[in-house]
């Protein structure tokens, strides 16, 4: 994605509780002379801030033009991940665009292929098996979180439907009572005028 040099950009990630999140990013700065993004942006860093659903700041750190950040979610819900450059140029001069390449991985534990190749086959199978077990735990955690969200949504929907039903009953009673009152008022009017 692209941002201005002094602009802050935030991304919302829906993350279950007790989940490891790993993010890799790389910043490129627009070069006016070459009309292209430079491969590296020397001297330019990024402030990375992660906020939990309760508003607690989980991570706030300055990184270089490329880096890796990680955090563990303690609450399930929408976590806000914000990026802002550490540019000290004035807003008038700092009109340059930045391109950020971002890769966020939720709940994954990565295998180091070089370490696996160095070990014998039995250890390789053992490491891969442990990795699969971790992935199964992550999938189970993700399913529990989705089930919890679905249950909350269902309760909200049922409450809304119940309120709509009662509102319809109240409207019907009001209409019936207004109709009866109008009929009685007209009947009394006609009797008082001796038209009936």
How would you describe this structure to a colleague?
The chain is an alpha+beta fold and 196 residues long. It folds into 2 domains: 2-109, Jelly Rolls (Sandwich); 129-161. The protein is built from 2 helices and 9 strands. It has helices at residues 113-118, 121-192, and strands at residues 2-4, 8-15, 19-31, 36-37, 46-51, 57-63, 66-73, 77-85, 97-106. The strands form 2 sheets. Strands 1, 3, 4, 7 and 9 form a 5-stranded antiparallel beta sheet that branches. A 4-stranded antiparallel beta sheet has the order 2-8-5-6, with no helix packed on it.
Rg of Cα set: 31 Å
Helix and strand run: EEEEEEEEEHH
What general form does the structure show?
elongated
Please count the helical segments.
Answer: 2
Structural class: alpha+beta
Q: What is the first-to-last residue Cα distance? A: 80 Å
CATH class of the largest domain: Mainly Beta
CATH fold label of the largest domain: Jelly Rolls
Question: What would you call the quaternary organization?
Answer: single chain
Ranges where pLDDT stays below 50 over 5 or more residues in a row are none
Helix content: 25-40%
The assigned CATH architecture of the largest domain is Sandwich
- In CATH terms, the superfamily of the largest domain is GOLD domain
Strand content: 25-35%
Task: Kindly state the number of beta strands.
Answer: 9
Biggest sheet overview: 5 strands, antiparallel
Domain module count: 2
- Average pLDDT over all residues: 83
Protein name: TMD11 protein
Keywords: Endoplasmic reticulum, Membrane, Signal, Transmembrane, Transmembrane helix
Family: Belongs to the EMP24/GP25L family.
Membrane topology: Single-pass type I membrane protein
